[in-house]
Write a structure and sequence with these properties.
The complex is a heterodimer. Chain A contains 5 helices and no strands. Chain A is an all-alpha fold. The longest helix of chain A has 32 residues, at 126-157. Helix content of chain B is 64%, strand content 0%. Chain B has a single domain (2-97, 111-118, 131-573), classed as Cytochrome c oxidase-like, subunit I domain (Cytochrome C Oxidase, Chain A, Up-down Bundle), CATH 1.20.210. Chain B is globular. Classes of the chains: A mainly alpha, B mainly alpha. At the A-B interface, helix 1 and helix 4 of A face helix 6, helix 7 and helix 8 of B.
């Protein structure tokens, strides 16, 4: 094995690799959601009656509460990030965030089961198709976000440098903030039409 | 025990490697293999066009539906499985880290995954030829209703629909995009965070700039297409009806989402190849690149304009004429930045001491051919002309005159230029020149005459005009036959390259001869040939711009970027 250490001379890093990478991931994601949302808005604008008369109404109140649950998860994650910045490696707030995220998913799931029971399916109408696509795609992003948070929780138990941990927390939190930030837009557009 | 460690090292070195150079070569080799598939498909339907109804050598009889599937897959393969891997991923992986003076990408494991996802996507696409019903045949643009189950199926059989040619093609494209995104993010992060000391933004070679701008265009435009493709997949496998007008859907929506990506995509392919020219022309003109900074700004302008012109593909789709005017103007505007870039290439050649080496011939051939493609693009950008020429061979010929020089001439220029550096071996120059002249001549033979067929109204999607008794195709069949013969010869000429490639690879390495054979100034030429894992023995520090040629009194006639001292050309102020 080579023993000589030859470290590349570098221009100074201002922001960590993970954070820059995440910025571009999220920019792409934002364009993906804009594509879906603009398709939805254009279609709704062209429809005579929206939502169609024979289709069930969406659960506005329950989802409003659920929205608050998701927003709360962003607050707990923010507080967790502050703790890490102040060198405290407690994972209580991170686990709270994960539990809030799981709660959001569970409530969404039960509402979906009810709606399917009422007769709203992906091929019952374009209204249903857009509802399940937009909300389902967001749901998939929540699942991905939870996996990211689990990964973060796992790396808390490992011995890594504080700086590496902070960068990890910054990049992973950005993803969760994005997932949370998209939701109110979807709630207003899809539920409160 | 020794045997097994050796085995391990082979797998880690050549198959599941995280080395950017190996991944770049894997991408390029995969691109060449897929170009073989795409070229074979082209041969089959080209033959059918000249001799309709006849049995095709090496294939047999071509059914009309097969013709459609082959044309569709030829387009898909050439854009997404040849152009993208060899120009963006191949060149990006090979060049970016070593040209900015670093050891590897920012996320090497992600980079390796990127290639293997790409590999799987190619397999998925090839599988679609063998499923019941065959590969998708509704054109590479995948317009509904052909691509949305024909609107017939409100309650499709999920698994049957998932393993149809249409769904497999959508899935393959989606996987390919994931791979390219992983690569693109790697490029941008690497360029931002891993540059050598002294490698400021305006000391980076143009090709690094252009690869990054291309990645950014790709990342910005791909989202809406993925959204559209997701909806198209749901239409096929769940029966949602997003694109079905009977249920309130809108087929034009797909066209917008597709072309919002599809048009920027041509600049994603063009910019890396132009970057290659920007590296090659100064070396063989022995002159600094003319207008370094303006070229970068022009590329950025073209990147912004590229996402504002997409509806020029939809002039006959029933869009508002006022909108068509807007998109016509935007389309013609975008020729300004590219004209600027080409002007600066011309000015780089002007008064230089030109060396007609093999890479230089490919580079100049690229400029000559692309000029024809670009100028006919101006015709088509105007909606008044486009309505007449839409879907004729004029359009097909136009985009082959842009994409063929771009993908193949750009790629070959890069191969002949960087082959010595990355393999430590040399290609045969005489064979390289023969390859160039054959390719140049037969490419023009294949395509130039078809401009006239297109102007006479030959439609791009009709495989056999004999079914149309009122249309007399006889006067145009001569051009079809010339085109087909030249296309076959064009494909055969590529075997000269393959022969050259394999015989050169069989030679022994010559690190001295291949270290800097062209007397070039960028950082990759200061590394060993071939560069080891980690690229540099001593990591470079950068003192100057990438194009300091014609330095009086210097042995190499140029300053490499890592030579200390004041800048000769003072590139920074250009």
């Amino acid at each position: 094995m080579e023993t000589a250490i030859n470290i590349p001379l570098r221009e100074k890093k201002v922001v960590s690799d993970g954070v820059i990478g995440m910025i571009f991931v999220l920019a792409t994601e934002a364009m993906f959601f804009s594509g879906l949302i603009s398709a939805f808005v254009i279609n709704r604008a062209g429809a005579m009656v929206w939502p169609p008369a024979d289709q069930p109404r969406l659960p506005i109140e329950v989802t409003a509460v659920n929205t608050l649950v998701l927003l709360a998860s962003a607050v707990t994650l923010f507080l967790f990030g502050r703790q890490v910045k102040n060198n405290r490696k407690s994972n209580t707030l991170l686990i709270t965030t994960i539990i809030l995220g799981l709660t959001f998913l569970t409530v969404q799931g039960t509402e979906w089961v009810k709606l399917i029971g009422y007769g709203l399916t992906a091929h019952s109408s374009l209204f249903g198709a857009f509802f399940y696509t937009l909300i389902g795609v967001h749901g998939l992003h929540v699942i991905a976000g939870l996996l990211v948070l689990f990964y973060l929780a796992a790396s808390l138990t490992k011995t890594i440098s504080l700086e590496a941990l902070r960068n990890k927390v910054a990049a992973c939190s950005m993803y969760w903030y994005f997932v949370v930030a998209v939701w109110p837009v979807l709630y207003i557009l899809v539920y409160l039409q | 025990m020794e045997m097994s460690t050796h085995q391990q090292s082979f797998w880690n070195k050549y198959i599941f490697s995280t080395d950017h150079k190996v991944i770049g070569m894997q991408y390029s080799i995969m691109g060449i293999i897929m170009a073989g598939v795409g070229g074979f498909l082209a041969y089959i339907f080209r033959y059918n066009l000249a001799y309709p109804g006849q049995s095709i050598p090496l294939f047999g009889h071509l059914a009309p539906l097969q013709y459609n599937a082959f044309v569709t897959c030829h387009g898909m393969i050439m854009v997404f499985w040849v152009g993208m891997p060899i120009l963006l991923s191949g060149l990006g992986n090979l060049l970016i880290p070593i040209m900015i003076g670093t050891d590897d990408m920012a996320f090497p494991t992600v980079n390796m995954l990127s290639f293997w996802i790409f590999f799987v996507s190619a397999l998925v696409l090839l599988t679609s030829f063998f499923v019941p019903g065959g590969a998708f045949g509704g054109g590479w643009t995948m317009y509904p209703p052909f691509s949305a189950g024909g609107y017939l199926n409100r309650n499709p059989d999920f698994f049957k629909a998932l393993f149809s040619g249409t769904s497999l093609m959508i899935l393959a494209v989606a996987l390919e995009f994931v791979a390219m995104l992983m690569g693109g993010i790697n490029f941008v992060v690497t360029t931002i965070n891993k540059r050598a000391k002294g490698m400021t933004a305006f000391r980076m070679p143009i090709v690094v700039w252009f690869l990054n701008i291309a990645s950014l265009i790709f990342m910005f435009s791909v989202g809406p297409l993925v959204a559209g493709a997701f909806m198209l997949l749901l239409d096929n496998v769940v029966g949602t009806g997003f694109y079905d007008p009977n249920r309130g859907g809108d087929p034009i929506l797909w066209e917008h989402l597709f072309w919002f990506f599809g048009h920027p995509e041509v600049y994603v392919l063009l910019l890396p190849a132009l970057g290659v020219l920007a590296e090659i022309l100064p070396v063989f003109a022995r002159k600094p690149l003319f207008a370094y900074k303006p070229i970068i700004y022009l590329a950025l302008v073209s990147a912004v304009l590229s996402v504002l012109v997409w509806a020029h593909h939809q002039f006959v789709s029933g869009i508002d004429p006022r909108m068509a005017t807007f998109f016509s103007i935007g389309t013609i505007l975008i020729s300004i930045p590219f004209a600027g870039i080409f002007l600066s290439f011309m000015a780089t050649l002007w008064g230089g001491s030109i060396r007609m080496t093999v890479p230089m011939m490919w580079a100049i051939g690229f400029i000559a051919l692309f000029l024809i493609g670009g100028l006919t693009g101006l015709f088509l950008g105007s909606n008044t002309f486009d309505i007449y020429a839409h879907d004729t061979y004029f359009v097909v010929t136009h985009f082959h005159y842009t994409l063929f020089p771009d993908v193949f001439f750009g790629f070959f220029a890069a191969v002949y230029f960087w082959f010595p550096k990355f393999t430590g071996k040399t290609l045969n120059a005489a064979l390289g020149k023969l390859h160039f002249w054959c390719t140049f001549f037969f490419f023009n033979g294949t395509w130039f005459l078809l401009f006239f067929n297109g102007l006479h109204g030959q439609h791009r999607r009709i495989n056999d005009y004999s079914s149309f008794s009122l249309i007399n195709m006889e006067p145009y069949m001569t051009f079809e036959k010339i085109s087909t013969i030249c296309a076959i010869l064009l494909i055969l000429s590529q075997f000269i390259f393959l022969y050259n490639l394999f015989t050169s690879l069989a030679k022994t390495k010559n690190p001295e001869l291949t270290k800097n054979p062209w007397h070039s100034a960028t950082l990759e030429w200061t590394a060993d040939s071939p560069p080891p894992h980690g690229n540099f023995k001593v990591y470079p520090e950068v003192y100057r711009g990438p194009y300091e040629y014609s330095v009086p009194g210097e042995v190499d006639d140029c300053y490499a970027q890592n030579v200390p001292g004041p800048s000769f050309e003072n590139n920074e102020n250009l």
